[in-house]
Amino acid sequence: MSQRNTDVSVQLDMPVDCDGEAVAPFTPGQAKACTVREVLDRVGGKWSIGVLVAASHGPVRFTELERQIEGISRRMLTLTLRNLERDGLLVRRVHPTVPPKVEYTATPIALELYEYLVGLTNWAERHRGAISAARIAYDREHGPV
């Protein structure tokens, strides 16, 4: 039997920051920064991008994702899928077959995000050499970070 944590240290109507700490009310800029950080933390996670890319090409099954995303454990894939579904980026569909067939499909907002990821990837490829050269020059002048 599990016990519920009843220790509530902040009032329910008190604003909290991105880390859940009680704070004074947000200014509009702070709220926007928090939202951006929250979203980027989720979609920029180690496994999320791979799942979103795979699902952006059409419905994909759990085992297909497991094969396509090198190094992901079943547990991490399950957690990543749940979080992306919770965030409205994936739709989980269970087909009534024996055994049940489960597919994940990218939502319209995930497909929009995919376009930005493609753009970011293209940018990174175009500027990879310049970034590498800048790092070498910086390390030569300041020492490695």
From TrEMBL:
Pfam families: HxlR (PF01638). One of its GO terms (molecular function) is DNA binding. Keywords: DNA-binding, Transcription, Transcription regulation. Coiled coil: none annotated. Residues 34-132 form the HTH hxlR-type domain. PANTHER family: TRANSCRIPTIONAL REGULATOR, MARR FAMILY, TRANSCRIPTIONAL REGULATORY PROTEIN. This is Transcriptional regulator, HxlR family. It comes from Micromonospora avicenniae.
